[in-house]
Every structure is written in structure tokens, then in C-alpha cells.
Amino acid sequence: MPVIKTDKESIIQKSIHLFKVHGYSSTTMAAIGEACGLIKGSIYHHFKSKEELALECLKYIHEYFKEEIFSIAHRKRLSSKEKLVLFTKKIEEYFLHSEGGCLLGNFALEISNNIPLLKKEIVAYFNSWEESIYEILKSDMGERKAKEKAVQIVAATQGSIMLMRLYGSSEPFKIQNRAIIDLLP
Question: Whole-model pTM?
Fold first, then answer.
């Protein structure tokens, strides 16, 4: 295999895919190196450890969601319903075109209690998701109900992503997304 130069972002993107499909424990640095066209040791020029690489993958996804999806909650020109529809559409686009489910959800189940640094980033991501939904719903539902619904939506969406992966069908995910959109008139 020819060894090529690659940048940090390329390593992160390929690692995200491997972590999503195979999990944290089953994804080796050697497998990441192979996917990147690098020898395993070359990855250590960019990341001190597999844990650091995993953290950067989580941060990368969290930043993407903040910029592309969570920010929808703060668009002043859209109604609550328009925000909810767009937010759900963007969530759907991401997960329907991304093999392996939700990396943060997968890691939450597999390793969050064993690696506190990763757990902290996973919690921050899900808090951001809940806060965005809350922001969209609060003017229509009130603060208390909006907070409860935000928690329910994130939990149900994550469950539907897991079922989508388990069944090999997008139908559970699409059903959940329709239910979210139907929350507001």
C-alpha cells in the first residue's frame, strides 16, 4: 500500500466513518491508518492517542451540527413550524446519508462511562440538540412543556436512528420525523 500525505480533517472524516460502522473498541489505529492510506504510526503525528482522535471526531460532528442544524433554532425570519420542519429535514438529510447511525449515540452506549473526556463532549452535543429544540418549541408550548418535549424528541430520534440501523430500513426514522413536525400546527 502506498503511503500518502493526508491532513488532520481527512483522518477525522475517515475515522468517523469507521467508528460509526465498527464502534470505538473494534476500530484500531491500524484500520484508520489503512483507510487513510497511512501507516499506523503516521496518525500519531496528528493525534496522541485513539482517545484524542475520537474526541476530535466528536467535536467535528458537534461543530457541524451547531453550524448547519442547531443554528436553525435562532433564525428570526422563520416561524416555529418552519424552523421545526427545516431542522427535521436537515437531521434527516444527515442521518439518511450517513452509514452507521449516530456516532455520538453509538459512543454514548459503548464507552461514555469508561472515558470521561468523551462523555463530556457527548453530553454537550445532546444538550445542544435539546436546547435547540427547546428554543424552537418554547414560544408555542411554554418553557416547561418545551423542555420536556425537547428531551423526548432527542431520545425518540436517537431510538429511531438505532432502529433504522438495526432493521436496515429508514421507515422508523421517517415516522419519528413526521411525528416531530406534527407537534406544531
Answer: 0.92
- The DSSP code for 26 is T
Burial 28-41 (b: 16+ CB within 10 A, else e): ebeebbebbebeee
In a domain, 43, yes or no: no
Q: Which three cell numbers stand for residue 126?
A: 445532546
In a domain, 64, yes or no: yes
Rounded distance, CA 24 to CA 33, Å?
15
Q: What is the pLDDT of residues 118-177, one digit of tens each?
A: 999 999 999 999 999 999 999 999 999 999 999 999 999 999 999 999 999 999 999 999
| Residues ≥6 apart with Cβ < 8 Å to 65 | 94, 125, 128, 129
